Model the fold of this input.
Amino acid sequence: MDPFELMIGGAQLTIRPKEDGTYLVFRGETKLAQLNPDITNDEDIVWETADWMDAEYATTIGKAIEEHEKHDTYGNIQR
Done:
């Protein structure tokens, strides 16, 4: 589970996936949040955090993580 970079709203964020399925979000060396993907009964993903982060911003980052993971997994299957 290697860290990866995302560009969200002009800010470069480092995402560090953890073994427990959560994601640590950093801007530089500053930890912004730990995001937890919660799968609903409709199989949608709701991104939650206990940190001081706007829910909409957490969702935006979470959706970008989903896109990265989807493309990363697809790329690994093709190898």
About this structure: The helical segments are 55-78. The two ends are 17 Å apart (CA to CA). The beta strands are 4-8, 11-17, 23-27, 30-39, 45-48. Confidence is low (pLDDT under 50) at residues 74-79.
